[in-house]
Amino acid sequence: MITAGVDLSASPASTAVAVVEWREHGGYSAVLRELVTPADDSTIRALVDAADRCGIDSPFGWPDAFVEFVSAHHRGDTPKDSRLDDIASRRPLAYRRTDRYLVEHGLGRPLSVSADQIAHVAFRCAGLLADLGVSDRVDGWAIEAYPAGALNHWGLTSRGYKRSTHRAVLAGLVDDLRAAAPWLDLESHSALMAVNDNAFDAVVTALIARAASLGGTGLPSADDLPIAHREGWIHVPTGTLDDLR
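Structure (tokenized):
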């Protein structure tokens, strides 16, 4: 099996792609075959083409309430008495059901796809999903991944390792990942992971894709499923790192 992970950014310069090969030798082992950054859309497509499952660190959609609100505003039909001076009234416009689910279950606090700069990433992702022929935003060949949620669940550092000022934290996190998953062969790519958080997150995203392929990530309830098909659904592992072997 081959899984790919894409740490998507609005710019190719900050985008990274990882490709992991899973092999069985009395138990699965994994080898990080490719780790590429920067990566434009054509590079992403070439690298993930042979993958059995692909994880992408980007929102796959927007909140239903936000889409309806913007459409109404565009038509000049903004509802009166919306009480949008109250942050609680604006929250459904900012956060998807999957975002709220993660917060409710202590799995993280994703950025708002409609109110934060990550919207630029989502614009790019929408085009990439179309180019890759991905229509299932819940549990298809490509799944929406959230590295911070996975790291938190696995007991690894999930915050404070990004940006050049935190390189020592990032390098320590790479060591922690190797210790927690000694069956994962990073080959010569560990040096890049230790200085580039996009590259590190791409590898984690490929691991999340593996978890999804084994049925080891949380999926929406029957009530949430129709919403998730429109808004997207974040996959967070439910098992241990060793469960990926």
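The chain has two domains: 2-61+97-244, 65-95. The mean pLDDT is 96.
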